[in-house]
Amino acid sequence: MPSLPPRPSLPSLHSLRPSNRGHAVGPKVPVPTARAIVDCAVYVDGVRLPGKYTHSAAISEVRKRGEGFVWLGLHAPDEGQMNGVAECYGLHELMVEDAVHAHQRPKLERYDDVAFLVLRTVSYVEHESVTTANEIVESGEIMVFLARDFVITVRHGEHSGLAGVRHRLEANTERLALGPSAVLHAVADHVVDEYLAVTGSIERDVDVMEEEVFSPNHHVPIENIYLLKREVVELRRSVTPLSTPLNQLVQGADTPIPKAVRRYLRDVQDHHTTVAERVAEFDEVLSSLVDAALARVTMQQNMDMRKISAWVAIAAVPTMVAGIYGMNFDNIPELHWQYGYYIVVGIVASVCIGLFATFRRNNWL
After folding, report:
1. Rounded to whole angstroms, how far apart are CA atoms 323 and 316?
2. Full-prediction pTM beyond 0.70?
3. Full DSSP string of 256-303
4. In sequence order, what are the beta bridge partners of 107?
């Protein structure tokens, strides 16, 4: 018998693994802080100084002059970018952590000479119908670092840009001359105005949902009401906690807010109170709509059960008679009558028609 050729050796598992030799993975390349900067400007007596400034050059210019302040705007900075800003402006590491990771409740904190305000922003998502929408409210965050010679705004989310706020303030030099606290007021006022706009749109959705629920010939799935209620809950979580920080700003406790700016903040607080009350009303109305929808479903189920019971009662008559005459007995009365079949069918039909008329008269059918 001829010998077989030797079997070729298979490569080992180790040889199949990709090798990193000669291709060492280096450290992640940091992204420059300038990538996260939306705008950076120096303001003196309410007027923006000409030229472009980096975040470090801007604060150096202000401190060299001994007057004015820096307004630095950032959008979704990472940890490295925020650490670069913190080194120049002397921000506490806890403030940096909150600014990077976001998802904070509205709050006001004080770290040495820097006040830290967190605002939750909301945006209304346009949709064709409230009964087919998947999302109604989109949320984000704006964080404000406030000191004597700078204000830093950090924004998370694609909505609620602050470019319009900056342009309006730059057009009002008298207001901007009040210092960084004027920027804080303008940002808070802008956020609360967005609350008012969103609640106005949601109010229309709630009215439409209420009309649909109480429409006699229209069925609204409870899931649609739950969706709208969930969006209102998200709005409430963004709006309601802001009352405490606004009250602290108005009272001026532990914050470098001049009295002239606190007067404007009272107006923002009034608008916020109005929004909070409207959101609470939406929650109550939607809870009532859920109860109404459940009651409507229960009533419909009761009506269906009455109809089923009525038809079962009607069907029981011929079933009972057929069951009796289907028994295997020889001596059943009327079994051998010539017209017995027709008489039994007539009696069964009469009883069934009588039951149908009775149930129909009582609105069971």
Report:
1. 10
2. yes
3. ---HHHHHHHHHHHHHHHHHHHHHHHHHHHHHHHHHHHHHHHHHHHHH
4. 118
**Whole-number percent of the chain with pLDDT over 70:** 91
pLDDT above 90 for 45: yes
Q: Give per-residue pLDDT as tens, 128-175.
A: 777 777 888 999 999 999 999 999 999 998 887 899 999 999 999 999
The sign of the dihedral angle between the CA atoms of 246, 247, 251, 252 is negative
Query: Which neighbouring-strand residues pair with 48?
Result: 43
Question: In residues, how long is the chain?
Answer: 365
- The secondary element (H helix, E strand) that includes residue 346 is helix 340-361
Cα angle for residues 159, 83, 78 (degrees, 5° grid): 40
What is the rounded distance in angstroms from the CA atom of residue 144 to the CA atom of residue 148? Answer: 13
Spell out the long-range contacts of 258-264 with Cβ–Cβ below 8 A and sequence spacing 24 or more: 258/178, 258/179, 258/181, 260/178, 261/178, 261/181, 261/182, 261/184, 261/185, 264/185, 264/189
Provide the strand spans (E) within the chain. Answer: 37-44, 47-48, 69-75, 107-111, 114-124, 137-146, 150-156
Contact 264, 249 (CB under 8 A): no
Neighbours of 54 (CB within 10 A): 14
* Cα-based angle 42, 46, 52 (whole degrees, multiple of 5): 25
CA distance linking residue 135 with residue 359, whole number of Å: 46
Check if the beta carbon of residue 160 is closer than 8 Å to that of residue 194.
yes
Residue 307: HSE in the Cβ half-sphere, 13 Å Cα cutoff:
7
Residue 19 binned pLDDT confidence (cut-offs 50, 70, 90): very low
DSSP letter (8 states) at residue 109: E
